[in-house]
Structures are given as C-alpha cells and as structure tokens.
Design goal:
This protein is α+β, with helices and mostly antiparallel strands and 168 residues long. It is built from 4 helices and 12 strands, in the order H-E-E-E-E-E-H-E-H-H-E-E-E-E-E-E. It is 16% helix and 41% strand. The longest helix is centred in the N-terminal third of the chain and has 8 residues.
C-alpha cells in the first residue's frame, strides 16, 4: 500500500475541524508568551469519566514542541462560518503565529490562558495527561478542565476528501 492509497482511503472519513491553541511560557517583560495555534481534524473524545480528549499532532511541529513543555491548551470547535480561520492556521512552515491571531476574535481561557475563538460551536480547556508516540505524530491526551457551548447557532465545519465542506 502506498501513502497516496492510504491518504485517499482515509480522506473518505468526514471529520470535524478544531483550532488547538496554547501559549508559550512567558518570554516578554509583561509576562506573556506568544500564542500558538493549529488546525486539527484528528480530534476526538476519549473518556467521559474522567473527561478526556485527544488530538494528533505532527512530530517536530511547533505545537508538538510546545505541548511537550506546556501542559495547558485549549480547543475551539469551529463553525462552518469559520472556514477562513481553519485555513489560516493549517498553513505549513509559518514562523510566527502572532500575526495570524491579529484579526481573529478571541477570548483568553480562564484556566489555560490559551485563546478561544469567539463564535466557536464549543470550547474546551485541557491539561495534558499523556503523550503517546504514534508514527510521525504524537497523540496528546488531555483532561478537560472547562467545557462550554457558547454558540447554539451555526453548523459545524467539516473536512472531507481534502476540502472543507458543509453538511447537507
């Protein structure tokens, strides 16, 4: 089986789209580190008791390096209307996330201090419980510290056959 065959087969599995965020440890004089974000489709619930979720993060990515040292992170479940945000944070090879967050309406999480996207269908704040190496990715399992569904309106943003899609 080739990588292309594997990728083509799994592209037939529709997935929800989330933005995973974390804040680097403080680097500047006002005690704030840089905010980092990553679009993910490999995200799922793991357990209800205790409440656990999992995200798959590419090895040696900025988020992989950050979550290895920063155990607190957040997830925004993106709405269909937030397709542009998903595309922006899925870009590869970017150096700084600072400009990417510049015009994205966000609120800082109370517990993690990570950014949560305003208008997201749901938001979660998490603390890493376990990191599991898995091929060219790391599975980051997080305990959910806070969860809310601030936006009752809107449809979920989904990813299918290599593109963002609408339900229905």
């Amino acid at each position: 089986m080739s990588n292309d065959e594997f990728r083509a087969a799994l592209s037939r599995l529709a997935a929800g789209v989330v933005l995973v965020t974390a804040q680097e440890p403080p680097l500047d004089e006002d005690g704030r580190g840089e905010d980092v974000g990553m679009t993910a489709t490999a995200f799922m619930s793991v357990s209800l008791d205790p409440p656990l979720v999992m995200v798959s993060v590419r090895n040696d990515s900025r988020m992989d390096d950050l979550l290895a040292e920063q155990p607190r992170w957040a997830v925004s479940v993106l709405a269909e209307s937030q397709r542009q945000i998903a595309g922006r944070f899925s870009m590869k090879g970017r150096i700084s996330d600072r400009l990417l967050f510049e015009d994205v309406p966000c609120t800082r999480g109370e517990v993690t201090k990570a950014l949560l996207v305003d208008g997201a269908l749901a938001t979660l704040e998490c603390h890493t419980e376990q990191c599991v190496p898995a091929g060219d990715h790391t599975l980051v399992i997080g305990r959910v510290l806070t969860a809310s569904a601030p936006s009752a309106d809107g449809e979920p943003l989904t990813y299918f056959k290599g593109r963002y899609r609408q339900l229905g």
